[in-house]
Amino acid sequence: METRFVTQHLSRRAEDYLEAILNVILEKGYARTTDVAHKLAVSPSSVVEMFRKLDALHLICYRRYEGAVFLPEGREIAEHIKYRHDTLKKFILIIGVSEKIADADACFMEHELHPDTVRRIHHFIAYTEENPSVCEQIQRFSDAIVR
Ligand code: MN
């Protein structure tokens, strides 16, 4: 899953939008402007502006009054960012951070961390899941930290 894409051409904001579009599509089947605006806590006009940019980059197809559908490269990038988000969030949760902070920090780190780091974290999570004793030890570590 951790493949290299041309994400370096995109701003963090554009990556956030692609990820939000994917999450809305997974929830509702279709990415309406208002749903994406709600997800990113921005105004519908900001969404329209970014939808136009992403459309011009051939990442999505934006239809006025309807919303956005992915074009293949847009979907690939979105899935790549979501994979990074989900992996990093899982890791942050494992070390005992609250859901809300884990989500926010994952969204920050997903744009910046080296692919090797994300890959190692992905394998680390898999290792803990496959080894219940490791899981228990990490749980004890988490419980031992004063909040
Ligand atoms: Mn994110």
CATH topology term of the largest domain: Arc Repressor Mutant, subunit A
Structural class: mainly alpha
Largest sheet: 2 strands, antiparallel
Strand line-up across the major sheet? 1-2
CATH class of the largest domain: Mainly Alpha
Number of domains: 2
Distinct bound molecules: manganese (II) ion
What does this structure look like?
There is one protein chain. With 147 residues, this protein is mainly alpha-helical. The protein has 2 domains: 7-77, Winged helix-like DNA-binding domain superfamily/Winged helix DNA-binding domain (Arc Repressor Mutant, subunit A, Orthogonal Bundle); 81-146, Orthogonal Bundle (Diphtheria Toxin Repressor, domain 2). The chain is built from 7 helices and 2 strands; from the N terminus they run αααββαααα. The chain has helices spanning 12-28, 33-40, 44-56, 72-94, 99-109, 115-130, 132-144, and strands at 60-63, 67-70. It has a two-stranded antiparallel sheet. It is elongated. Residues 19, 85, 106-107, 110 line the site of manganese (II) ion.
Architecture blueprint of SSEs:
Layout: H1 12-28, H2 33-40, H3 44-56, E1 60-63, E2 67-70, H4 72-94, H5 99-109, H6 115-130, H7 132-144
Antiparallel strand pairs: 1-2
Helix pairs in contact: 1-2, 1-4, 2-3, 4-5, 4-6, 6-7
The structure holds manganese (II) ion.
